[in-house]
Amino acid sequence: MLEDYVKKILTSRVYDVAVETPLQIAPQLCERLDNKVWLKREDLQPVFSFKIRGAYNKLTQLSSEERARGVVTASAGNHAQGLALAAKVLGVKATIVMPKTTPEIKVEGVRSRGGIVVLHGDSFPEALAYSLKLVDEQGYVYIHPYDDPHTIAGQGTVAMEILRQHPGPLDAIFVPVGGGGLIAGIAAYVKYLRPEIKVIGVEPDDSNCLQEAMAAGERVVLPTVGLFADGVAVAQIGHYTFEICKDYVDEVITVSTDEICAAIKDIYDDTRSITEPAGALGVAGIKKYVETRGVSGQTFVAIDSGANVNFDRLRHVAERAELGEGREAIIAVTIPERPGSFKAFCEAVGKRQITEFNYRYHSGREAHIFVGVQTHPDNDPRSALIASLTRQGFPVVDLTENELAKLHIRHMVGGHAAHVSNELVFRFEFPERPGALFNFLNKLGGRWNISMFHYRNHGAADGRVVAGLQVPADERHLVPAALEAIGYPYWDESENPAYTLFLG
């Protein structure tokens, strides 16, 4: 199997439109991690991602009759732009079905490259179903984003370039994983020619379809998929891609949203380029690998796979990057409500920089403050800060890993509601589209009073909401069914310490 893929890779016609991207050293990462870190800059492709390789190679394999019929695909992002440009170069009509929630930068990216955009549905499965309907109705040829041997071969040219650009010792290549086209192509080429090099997949911890498939020994469908790294938000690994990955991918690492944001900042510090969340997975994976294995003196390559990120999303990235790097702690601290307490707390913090401070009067006896404090993972970790404050008599609750605190509470600290009773608190994610909020409120109905509401837009495809509902004790058993009927993912946060300390 590998030999067949290598032949396809070596004969792929990608360079009519794609470029050979540089393999760039990341000096600051090298110094911090005590390992050599190279970045394969696929963000420098004409469509700002590697996807142009597979899309163009697949189109070159079509017969003249198939090209005349036109092509169609479903994609929320980089494959759409790659196919649009590939089709334009080859003179093929391309129709791209995209969910209505697709970021505008990617919709315009497709249109500007000559693709016909059809916005349909709120999610990728709905867009996919409609694109397949067009195949039946219009006779279009469907071009799969990742699960096709010629697409896999096109992406595999990335590995061909890496081995040519870095002929010396190389310990591992870290590859972002969505549907698996990129890692399958890289694994096929690398394991055939340099089997000693590890091929390591990196996925978000809420979109780990390859990791779950490897553990089960078969393809699985994730019940939910996180949307922050939208370029790899795939519920099931591809059939062709898994046939390669199950035997030739050495391992899969998962990383958190905060770790992805920290990696985006790392890449910026070394290259002054802005990477999309999916594109930073390779660097996030290297950092986690080095941290957990304690390795040094090795040589790694991270695939910087794309740079198609909404500008509005950068505020969220910047907010979370320091947390992901272990350079900020988010804590709740209880202090006595008396003159001099703030001063005593600041003295206890010492020379550490306070990055955020939220306070509102609570009672005559004590105050709860929401604080961000700068830390350092090596010489002044979060644990040392918390231990120091505790020793000095300040009760501390660590909220650094608390999603409710980081997404909402930090923007809402305003004191407890004295006359609110029977309050339940839920956190929701819903598709960022016109009417989503009305749909939420309409389906919730007027049965229970909404006692608290906070919404944040992160420039992403999903909206984040926290809501309080006043529900009498004898009706609480009705709440799960009512929330399920809304159709949005939700989490019960009624016992979350961030809520109980600052708002409950």
Automatic annotation (TrEMBL):
<dbReference type="InterPro" id="IPR038110">
    <property type="entry name" value="TD_ACT-like_sf"/>
</dbReference>
<dbReference type="Pfam" id="PF00291">
    <property type="entry name" value="PALP"/>
</dbReference>
<dbReference type="InterPro" id="IPR045865">
    <property type="entry name" value="ACT-like_dom_sf"/>
</dbReference>
<feature type="domain" description="ACT-like">
    <location>
        <begin position="329"/>
        <end position="401"/>
    </location>
</feature>
<dbReference type="GO" id="GO:0006567">
    <property type="term" value="P:L-threonine catabolic process"/>
</dbReference>
<dbReference type="GO" id="GO:0006565">
    <property type="term" value="P:L-serine catabolic process"/>
</dbReference>
<dbReference type="InterPro" id="IPR001926">
    <property type="entry name" value="TrpB-like_PALP"/>
</dbReference>
<dbReference type="InterPro" id="IPR005787">
    <property type="entry name" value="Thr_deHydtase_biosynth"/>
</dbReference>
<keyword id="KW-0028">Amino-acid biosynthesis</keyword>
<feature type="domain" description="ACT-like">
    <location>
        <begin position="424"/>
        <end position="495"/>
    </location>
</feature>
<comment type="subunit">
    <text>Homotetramer.</text>
</comment>
<dbReference type="InterPro" id="IPR000634">
    <property type="entry name" value="Ser/Thr_deHydtase_PyrdxlP-BS"/>
</dbReference>
<keyword id="KW-0412">Isoleucine biosynthesis</keyword>
<comment type="function">
    <text>Catalyzes the anaerobic formation of alpha-ketobutyrate and ammonia from threonine in a two-step reaction. The first step involved a dehydration of threonine and a production of enamine intermediates (aminocrotonate), which tautomerizes to its imine form (iminobutyrate). Both intermediates are unstable and short-lived. The second step is the nonenzymatic hydrolysis of the enamine/imine intermediates to form 2-ketobutyrate and free ammonia. In the low water environment of the cell, the second step is accelerated by RidA.</text>
</comment>
<dbReference type="GO" id="GO:0003941">
    <property type="term" value="F:L-serine ammonia-lyase activity"/>
</dbReference>
<dbReference type="InterPro" id="IPR001721">
    <property type="entry name" value="TD_ACT-like"/>
</dbReference>
<keyword id="KW-0100">Branched-chain amino acid biosynthesis</keyword>
<dbReference type="InterPro" id="IPR036052">
    <property type="entry name" value="TrpB-like_PALP_sf"/>
</dbReference>
<comment type="similarity">
    <text>Belongs to the serine/threonine dehydratase family.</text>
</comment>
<comment type="pathway">
    <text>Amino-acid biosynthesis; L-isoleucine biosynthesis; 2-oxobutanoate from L-threonine: step 1/1.</text>
</comment>
<keyword id="KW-0456">Lyase</keyword>
<keyword id="KW-0677">Repeat</keyword>
<keyword id="KW-0663">Pyridoxal phosphate</keyword>
<protein>
    <recommendedName>
        <fullName>L-threonine dehydratase</fullName>
        <ecNumber>4.3.1.19</ecNumber>
    </recommendedName>
</protein>
<dbReference type="InterPro" id="IPR050147">
    <property type="entry name" value="Ser/Thr_Dehydratase"/>
</dbReference>
<dbReference type="GO" id="GO:0009097">
    <property type="term" value="P:isoleucine biosynthetic process"/>
</dbReference>
<dbReference type="Pfam" id="PF00585">
    <property type="entry name" value="Thr_dehydrat_C"/>
</dbReference>
<dbReference type="GO" id="GO:0004794">
    <property type="term" value="F:threonine deaminase activity"/>
</dbReference>
<dbReference type="GO" id="GO:0030170">
    <property type="term" value="F:pyridoxal phosphate binding"/>
</dbReference>
